[in-house]
Amino acid sequence: MRLKRSFLFALLALAILAALPMFLSGNLLNAAIKMMIAALFALAFTLAMGQAGMLSFGHAAYYGLGAFAALHLMRAAEQQLFFFPTPLIPLGGALAGFVFGLIFGWFATQRSGVYFSMVTLALAELLFTIAPTLSTIFGDESGISTIRGASWGFTFGPDIEVYYLTLIWVAICAFLMWAFTRTPLGRLALALRENEHRVRFLGFNTHVARTLIFAISCLFTGVAGALVAIANEAANYTIFAAQGSANVVLQTFIGGAGTFFGPALGAAVMTFFARVTSDLTRSWLLYQGLIFVLVMLFAPTGLGGLVEMHARKLRSGAWRHLAGPYVLCAVAALLLIAGVVFTVESIHVVLTDAYTAARRSAGGAWVPYKLFGFSFHPMVPTTWAIPVLSLAAGAALLPIARRITMAAWKRATEAGGDDAVAPGAPGPTARNEGATA
Amino acid sequence: MEYVVVSLLNGVVHGLLLFMVSAGLTLIFGMMGVLNFAHAWFYMLGAYVGFTCTRLGGFWIGLLLAPVIAGLFGVFVERFMLRRVHKYGHAHELLLTFGLAFIIEEVIKLFYGDALVSYQMPDYMRFAAFTIFETNYPFYRLFMGAVALAMFAILYLLLTRTRIGIIVRAATYRPSTVEGLGHNLPLIFMGVFAGGTAMAGLAGAVAGAFYPTGPNMAVDFGTLVFVVVVVGGLGSVLGALIASLMIGVFISFAVGIQLSLADLLGLVGLGEWARGVGGLLTLKLQTIANSMPFLLMLLILLIRPAGLMGDRQ
Amino acid sequence: MNASATMSAEPVLELRGLRKSFGETQIIRGVDLIVRRGERHALIGPNGAGKSTLFNLISGHYVPTSGDILLNGQPIGGMAPHLINRRGLSRSFQITNVFPRLSVAENLRISIMGKRGHRFTVFRAVSGLKDVNDEVDAYIEKLRLQKRRNDMAGDLAYSEQRILEMGMSLATDPTVLILDEPTAGMSREETTYIVDVIRQVTEGRTLLVVEHDMSVVFTLCDRVSVLVYGEVIATGDPASVRANKKVQEAYLGEEVH
Q1: Could you give the CA distance from residue A107 to residue A104 in angstroms, rounded to a whole number?
Q2: pLDDT tens across B104-151, in order?
Q3: Which residues make Cβ contacts (< 8 Å) with residue A395, sequence separation at least 6?
Q4: What 3-state DSSP class applies to A155?
Q5: Fewest CB atoms less than 10 Å from the CB: which of A374, B106, B152, C44?
Q6: Of the candidates A217, A207, A183, the residue with the CA atom closest to the CA atom of residue C121
Q7: With an 8 Å Cβ cutoff, is A103 touching chain B?
Q8: For residue A198, what is the nearest residue in chain C, using CA coordinates?
Q9: C and B touch per CB criterion (3+ pairs under 8 A)
């Protein structure tokens, strides 16, 4: 029954995604493509991390290798060396990811915990530093660029065709990864995360098992890389940079590595967030870091964990108890966010060269600055009052809201007869023993 | 000969700087099991504090304030962040510090911008200490080396000669036993974390005035610091010192050497073949100097994961 | 009264002059021991005698300094644990060593999967492996854990976790099963329950067990070996070992009931 419901949800999501391009403009369509690819990347990363407890700090390596494999296939078609149908190019990425996953993984999985993370980091950094010198494979600093060839009656020129190609691949891969969790090797992955030592004494070669699982994770990562190469028609060596490996870690844990769909959700949300905020503010990475740290501190199971927790509650009709307290929480959160954003953006504006120039022309006096379409004067108490008051009010309201929410949650639990897990206090499922040496 | 001596000197000084940052990281890991991903960002914080103080008051105030501010921030991080998530395991703590690194870097960028800042040593320190083979050797390099050595001496005496040092060392091996003996373990953890971050802050303030101070300094330095602690053996201060010197000297030599694998193969008569193959075989050591530390770290991790001086995995 | 019908004089596990040193300290000082096919053999000895080290040597956790370990006449000393397991020797652990966040059935399935050749299978769903799932159910019944089938192993009572842990070792179908203090830290009733289950599920198998509780040793085992300071000082049926002078000296101050 649970299975059936998950299946219905997946179908619904697929239907929405299939219908989405009708409502999206060009720019948003491109954003949607990137969101789906990020979701696939995060799911693939989680296959190694969430299930087998292998925290890789170098997954950008397999993503990049998948991308370059795809670019070479595209370029071969472009230069008419041989024909490879564009829709099947992600297979090339998959192969590249899998092969390098096997090779690199064989080394990395000899270690566990922090040491495993360090090996993956070192391997990716090695690739990142060597790639620009291997110009025949990875191009020079500017990388490789090519164009999507027409095949199977599609030109693959317009974004909409790329969108559906991406959607189909992401859906297939997501299904395969879900199916993987139900295979013997998928189950073994869970056991490895829990207690590798014990698995060894049950007659398993854990090194082989971990290498295979890692390589399968890299296989799907390679597909994601190939898809991004198809979408961008170019890539250079910076695709291997630590930034890429870091991003997938951030997105996965914001989404929650403990649930299957959580990482995909986190990646899609954060990619969208990056897309929107990077146009609006130069401090978007700061906000992303803040979100990550807050999630780690207060919602260790991530967005996925929260959704799952509430899905149970909503079914038992507990929303009646919770709606009120949640509005209160939202108000407190909004006040705090307003205070932080106002402060950060004000500092940002006041420290720009433009503002310094404006001050200079005013003879060094403080002049008003523009923010969110309003004008503020830095030396007027009302300007300072905005962040101070909203931060103070938010900080004062938060503990109250928290207490009321806890109480409401308890009532809802008693009413629903469900297992008692309060928000912000997850059960043992939140433990990530993966990286303990 | 000139090249060898100068490279050696530069390498040793660079190595000592690496050590100042990695000593704290390795101590924290050894004791708390937490690999503090943000450690190099405390180094960066120190450099920017030094820069700000030099602007406002003076260079020496910066040297004094940088470790204090970095250490106090370390206390905050340990007390209100790490301790909160301790129950979710070490991976969670690692991830938290990972996010923290982002925040520190972005906040610094918010205030100081994306470009390098001009953090300079005072003019009276800008002179040649001595001349070797017609090269004027800057006094400031010696000064950096001296600060690092002094710190090592203090740390060594603190760890071996004082009661606190003995407790700290004991806690590196058996934290629960130390707690059972009636010592306040959380306080010791906080102290070590603060001490480690303060050392990184001091290193930043000292080195920032010589090397470029900018938003990338933590990433660049941070990866090297990881290499050092892994190679030296996570938890071993002596190992960190040896590995720092090794890597410092190695990098300092590698950037000036034009050798490639093909040249080496040439010694056994395979040079032509190797040049024909091209690719990796014809890369000059100079151009892949940046990759070498990672190669070293990989080798160590695969051959002797406990590191040079570590005694466990 | 305890002699199983299947017991024979044929050695299935044999230790010859086995030694293990850690640095300067020799923990195992030349152990010779024969475990016969089908018998339940107890290994007893005072604290620090080296029982756990001996177990770790046999199961492949440590590499012997010198000497041989023969399983069915084949040397296994120093082999990787998973290979030793595949040759038919399985161990359970003194500390509970289950997969805490997997269900009881899932815990057993992992060990049965491996034995039935589904170590790295990726093209079939576990739900479709009928032979594996049937055996899981059979084991759950044998271990008397029916009510706990879908509970997380970490949520079981201590004694149930120990039973599950032993069941996992047993489910790999070993020729020789070695148990490390199966009743340590248990109440009287729990001990009775666990001994009862052990007797039932190990019927027809060879068992080597480290045990402190002498009443368990006497009700469960056919033969007893006494390990003192890294040497076996006596081997024989329980009654004769109890009467042995050297054994009584070794246990000076500790009562042998």
Answers
A1: 5
A2: 988 888 888 787 877 777 777 777 767 766 667 778 888 888 888 888
A3: A336
A4: coil
A5: A374
A6: A183
A7: no
A8: C97
A9: no
Q: Global pTM? A: 0.80
Does the beta carbon of C217 lie under 8 angstroms from any beta carbon of chain A?
Answer: no
CA dist., res. A148 & res. C176, Å (int): 62
| Mutation for testing the A interface, residue in C110, C123, C136 having most A CBs under 10 Å | C110
If you average pLDDT over every residue of chain B, what do you get? Answer: 79
> What sign results for the dihedral spanned by CA atoms A187, A193, A198, A199?
positive
Confidence band of B284 (pLDDT split at 50, 70, 90): low
Q: How far is A419 from chain C (nearest CA, A)?
A: 14
Chains A and B touch (3+ CB pairs under 8 A): yes
CB distance from B297 to chain A under 8 Å?
A: yes
Q: Which residues of A touch C101 (CB under 8 A)?
A: 190, 194, 428-429
Rounded Cα gap, residues A399 and A6, in angstroms:
35
Q: Concatenate the DSSP letters of all residues of C61-94 into one string.
A: SS--SEEEEEETTEE-TT--HHHHHHTTEEE--S
Nearest CB to A202; choose among C100, C111, C154: C111
Rounded to the nearest angstrom, the minimum Cα separation between A109 and chain C is: 16
| Nearest residue in A to B312, CA atom | A437
Look at residue B93 in the predicted model and tell me its pLDDT: 85
